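User: Fold this, then the next.

Assistant: Folding the first:
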Amino acid sequence: MLKIWFSIMIALTVFILGCKDSEIIIDNSTQAMLEEQFSLNFEKTAIVSPVDIKVKFVKVTEDSRCPSDVVCIWAGQVSVLINVNDNGKDLGDIKLTLGANKDDAVIDIGEYYLKLIEVKPYPISTKRIEPSEYIATLVVSTSMDN
């Protein structure tokens, strides 16, 4: 009887530890490093080390970029909302824009800067981009120039 009880306890422990690992996967967060570019899928979060800044790609608010298979007068722009949490303090949703004014792509978040580098996929006139297809490339750095 003691062997059965011991076996059940081991099985339960393995099951509980296995569930804990799957919670990490369900969390959908990725690790990123300060001063290094990282890509973030729509509605996903990155934790920037060693500064404990969490960055979540909330949504694309505008994508008026000229499709790659069309000739346009204006190149257009793409804007995203990024939620930022700095050491447990919610800084809210921040709008970053890639377009004519390069200053719209970077914002001061305390001691650091958050910069939007790229948003994929690039539009094609014959294909609608679903929100879940977007990927934003960002960097958190100590300088506006990175």
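Now the next one, as you asked:
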Amino acid sequence: MSRKRPSICDSLELTGEPAIASPSNVIPLSQEPAARPKPNPEVHHTSIYVPKVAYRKIREIAVIRDAKPHDIIMEGIDLVLGKYGHPSVADLKKGKP
């Protein structure tokens, strides 16, 4: 014959009164904030708003090329820099004017 496991609900005292926090039932919060990676000082974070239809196309291109949408967007930045007579991102990183 199988025996039923005891339930933790059986040991609860449900009186309908709100629970009062006491040192025994309070879990202390960590004093240290969650660790975040240090930002790269060579990179500036920015956000852009892209129409959904355009972003879907960027993702589609990325999937076909086995890349990330970020890579496709960076390629577009290189094209804009070139259009206005500036070196590519890779050249700028190397220190070429």
